[in-house]
Amino acid sequence: MTSTFLLIGHLILLIPLFSAEECIVCDYFVLVGEPTAISCPVITLPALHSDYNMTWYKNGSNTPITTEKHARIHVRKGLLWFIPATLEDSGLYECEVRGLNRSNQKTINLKVFKNDNGLCFNGKMKYEQVVNSANIGNIICPDLENFKDEDNVKPEVHWYKECKPGFLEDKRFVLAEGENAVLIHNVSVQDKGNYTCRMVYTYMGKQYNVSRTMSLVVKESPLQMRPEFIYPKNNTIEVELGSHVVMECNVSSGINSLIPYWEVNDGYVDDFDSTYREQFYEKGMPHGITVAGTKFNISKVKVKDYAYKFFCHFIYESQQFTSYIKLEPPAQNIQGYLIGGGVSLVFLVFVTLIIYKIFKIDIVLWYRNSCHPFLGEKASDGKIYDAYVLYPKNRESCLYSSDIFALKILPEVLERQCGYNLFIFGRNDLPGEAVISIADEKIRQSRRVIVILVPEPSCYSILEDASEKHLAMYNALIQDGIKVILIELEKIHDYTNMPESIKYIKQKYGAIRWKGDFSERSHSASTRFWKKVRYHMPSRKRGSSSGFHLLP
Ligand SMILES: *[C@@H]1O[C@H](CO)[C@@H](O)[C@H](O)[C@H]1NC(C)=O
Ligand SMILES: *[C@@H]1O[C@H](CO)[C@@H](O)[C@H](O)[C@H]1NC(C)=O
Ligand SMILES: *[C@@H]1O[C@H](CO)[C@@H](O)[C@H](O)[C@H]1NC(C)=O
Ligand SMILES: *[C@@H]1O[C@H](CO)[C@@H](O)[C@H](O)[C@H]1NC(C)=O
Ligand SMILES: *[C@@H]1O[C@H](CO)[C@@H](O)[C@H](O)[C@H]1NC(C)=O
Ligand SMILES: *[C@@H]1O[C@H](CO)[C@@H](O)[C@H](O)[C@H]1NC(C)=O
Ligand SMILES: *[C@@H]1O[C@H](CO)[C@@H](O)[C@H](O)[C@H]1NC(C)=O
Ligand SMILES: *[C@@H]1O[C@H](CO)[C@@H](O)[C@H](O)[C@H]1NC(C)=O
Ligand SMILES: *[C@@H]1O[C@H](CO)[C@@H](O)[C@H](O)[C@H]1NC(C)=O
């Protein structure tokens, strides 16, 4: 009973069955041929004691209606019964309640109606019931309390929608046994309509139908909106290392019991970092929408914050919903670093190359000096001389002291200071030996050929001393791989008059120009010129090189 009263709280009745004092003349309806039991509206007044007499009268009659149970119209348990009602029963009835000291009376109006043509109900005689969409709703078959069987067994209720049975086959509809109601899960707008319930009432061995028709109204309520993440939406955001980020997750819904929460690395964010301090909030929005949110501050983004996805969860209808956000370092900056790194690398290589270009000779010489002792003796190549020196012999017509250079300065530096072993044509050769055969042999025994050039072609002793055969011979040697070092004693602008082989050598190896004087004073092996020469000379184990600055 209690639960029935609770359910009745949901009802808006077109028919004010229990409207009590509010109605002056209270209306009652009954389908023709069906039984009905009418209670006197004043009976609910609490002032009445159990010790009272109730009397029913037909309008205008002083004769109380009988309490004889077999009569079609009778009074039983204070109720006025019509079993069943006929069309002629329509009209006014009075009930009078008489206690010891006071009495009260009410008039009720009974309307006995017929069903609409072809329908199981009358469109004007309906109970209106309202349910919210997307929610659980119920349809109640009202006012059946008085129609218990004589055995006090709850009667079976049959249900119809638009006068057709079978709608209960939809799993969303569940009969609420004992409550004369139907539960509807996930109410949709399509559920609106005319529902009729019918039960069979047996009285005095006769069966009667008792039916009610409810007009179900489905209200589409924003309150029942499914919860949705506003933010995040499985997205990635770029944040700078060390920057401040407010991590906010919010969910919009029609209910206010959602509690979203953050998780990272399979734990709460506050466990991940105690400075985060997650905070829950909830705020109402227009149209009955509630936004539930949770947020925390990352006051300084750390590297570990880039490593995990931050998951925001909430539970709705025992289901977990998840959306995540991932922090990433800004892409442009990475690109920037890469480009910057690339540029500086290229720049570094460039600078290194320039430095190498400028200091190549010094580096190679330093390397030879510092590293060679440790590299061990070079395998002997079977050669005697480090260089074979060819120079134009001084003639009266020549202004150049090529003799001094070749016979004094060159040996002073390369032989005495640097420890090279030179074959100088015109110094080491024995007079009378055949020039060609000596040159041939000595060049083969040398690792380099040093050719000293002067600008005046007339001075060329090479041409003078050596025949075409001589030149052809050392051309061949050049092709054998012997390196040639050209030393210009003065800038030579024009090589056109030089022999072909000299032109070739100049083109292939270039020339080193002497810039010093021709005095016989000591020349330092560490001047630029001599460094260049030494660079082109074969590397040499340390020997007499210790005396770089020996005085003459
Ligand atoms: C009710 O009616 C009975 C007899 O009809 C009478 O004896 C009794 O006193 C009445 N009670 C009251 C409260 O009027
Ligand atoms: C009720 O009774 C009064 C007086 O007897 C009469 O005038 C009136 O018409 C009746 N009303 C109905 C609806 O029967
Ligand atoms: C009835 O009225 C009398 C006097 O008016 C009063 O004393 C008595 O208590 C009343 N009885 C009830 C049951 O109200
Ligand atoms: C309910 O019945 C009324 C007639 O009383 C009808 O006009 C209406 O269309 C019905 N509702 C539905 C949903 O069929
Ligand atoms: C109600 O709807 C939800 C979501 O659409 C579904 O999971 C659930 O099974 C439905 N309930 C019934 C009884 O159909
Ligand atoms: C009750 O109603 C049903 C369906 O309308 C009908 O088949 C049956 O005969 C009725 N019973 C009585 C006793 O009127
Ligand atoms: C939800 O969170 C986002 C991201 O922080 C924020 O921009 C938005 O204003 C929030 N929405 C509401 C209604 O609080
Ligand atoms: C998070 O940072 C905002 C400023 O962006 C500040 O107003 C708020 O108080 C901070 N919250 C916490 C818990 O530190
Ligand atoms: C977001 O990711 C979570 C878990 O990775 C997943 O369950 C969810 O369906 C995703 N949501 C969307 C809109 O892709």
UniProtKB/TrEMBL annotation:
Q: Where is the chain membrane-spanning? A: 337-359
What keywords are annotated for this sequence in UniProt?
A: Disulfide bond, Glycoprotein, Hydrolase, Immunoglobulin domain, Inflammatory response, Membrane, NAD, Receptor, Repeat, Signal, Transmembrane, Transmembrane helix
Q: In which organism is this protein found?
A: Anas zonorhyncha (Eastern spot-billed duck)
Name of the protein this chain belongs to? IL1R1 protein
Which PROSITE patterns does the annotation name? IG_LIKE (PS50835), TIR (PS50104)
GO BP of this protein? inflammatory response; regulation of inflammatory response
Family to which the UniProt record says this protein belongs: Belongs to the interleukin-1 receptor family.
SUPFAM superfamilies under this entry?
Answer: Immunoglobulin (SSF48726), Toll/Interleukin receptor TIR domain (SSF52200)
Ranges for the Ig-like domain? 16-109, 136-215
Recorded GO CC terms: membrane
Q: Which PANTHER family match?
A: INTERLEUKIN-1 RECEPTOR FAMILY MEMBER, INTERLEUKIN-1 RECEPTOR TYPE 1
Which InterPro entries would you find in this protein's record? Ig-like_dom (IPR007110), Ig-like_dom_sf (IPR036179), Ig-like_fold (IPR013783), Ig_sub (IPR003599), Ig_sub2 (IPR003598), IL-1_rcpt_fam (IPR015621), IL-1_rcpt_I-typ (IPR004076), IL-1_rcpt_I/II-typ (IPR004074)
The GO molecular function terms of this record are: hydrolase activity; interleukin-1, type I, activating receptor activity
Specify the signal sequence span.
1-20
Entry's localization field = Membrane
